[in-house]
Amino acid sequence: MYLTYFNGQWTEGNVPLYGAMDHSLWLGSSVFDGARAMHGKLPDLRPHLERVISSADKLGLRCPLSVDEMEALVREGVAKFPADAELYIRPLVFGTDGFLIPVAEASQFALTLFDAPLPPFAGFSACLSTLLRPQASMAPTDAKASALYANSTRAMREAKARGFDQAIMLDADGNVAEFAASNLFIVAADGAVVTPKLNGTFLAGITRARVIALLASEGVTVEERTVGKEELMTAREIFSTGNYGKVTPCTRYEDRTLEAGPVARRARELYLAFTETS
Ligand code: PMP
């Protein structure tokens, strides 16, 4: 089921939101975020709502609702689903008026909730993309802007065409940035748990930050540093973090087979335990 809140009411189905003249349709002024409900628990909901407000600001839009208002709507919407539902929660802010530059005050808000079971802890395959994450001077990389996904989905299409599930993208300096739509961690050859240091080219994932904190609470320090692409060939584990799948292991990288390893497994368990407390 899809359920959307727009202009003061909840409606089921694929609710039309845009007009032919709307800025977001014409020039891509839309931002979104993705959170999850898992049997009524809402892990890190507020950071996701805070981020949609800041993403909107970065694009010259203005989210018309506060975090508290959005949270109340999310809770109202989640209560309309069965208690054990696993849902994707997608707040969206988009521009309507404006010729070239969007009129911030005319930004619109919509919130869509839909069934999306948490993927199992099963391995996925990934290849190295020929496409790069743009630098902060080339695209609104500090926002979760829909426009960025035009390139990320090109990378995914390229990966699919090569027979892989996912793409790993490098930054413009040739270092590992992230998967096309999730953050990347490795367990390096020396056993260190490592994730690329934030450098403004890829999303500062909320799940990434949560997993770093959860592993730290177990005494496992995650090194945030530059990761060279050659390290993907020697890593003991490669795994992804992101709202959709939370923690999932990459079990094939190019022609290498990897195990769904103990660090990824522990990070997933810790995340699920954290969910119960949220
Ligand atoms: N990078 C990209 C490009 C993404 O789309 C996502 C999913 N939101 C992530 C990373 C992971 O971010 P988060 O943990 O905040 O969902």
From TrEMBL:
Gene3D superfamilies: 3.30.470.10, D-amino Acid Aminotransferase, subunit A, domain 2. Keywords: Aminotransferase, Pyridoxal phosphate, Transferase. The keyword Coiled coil does not apply. Pathway: Amino-acid biosynthesis; L-valine biosynthesis; L-valine from pyruvate: step 4/4; Amino-acid biosynthesis; L-leucine biosynthesis; L-leucine from 3-methyl-2-oxobutanoate: step 4/4; Amino-acid biosynthesis; L-isoleucine biosynthesis; L-isoleucine from 2-oxobutanoate: step 4/4. One of its GO terms (molecular function) is branched-chain-amino-acid transaminase activity. It catalyses: L-leucine + 2-oxoglutarate = 4-methyl-2-oxopentanoate + L-glutamate; L-valine + 2-oxoglutarate = 3-methyl-2-oxobutanoate + L-glutamate; L-isoleucine + 2-oxoglutarate = (S)-3-methyl-2-oxopentanoate + L-glutamate. The keyword Transferase applies. Transmembrane segments: none annotated. It comes from the Bacteria. Pfam families: Aminotran_4. Its EC number is 2.6.1.42. GO terms for biological process: amino acid biosynthetic process; carboxylic acid biosynthetic process. GO terms for cellular component: cytosol. Its cofactor is pyridoxal 5'-phosphate. Belongs to the class-IV pyridoxal-phosphate-dependent aminotransferase family. Acts on leucine, isoleucine and valine. This is branched-chain-amino-acid transaminase. It comes from Massilia yuzhufengensis. The lineage of its organism: Bacteria, Pseudomonadati, Pseudomonadota, Betaproteobacteria, Burkholderiales.
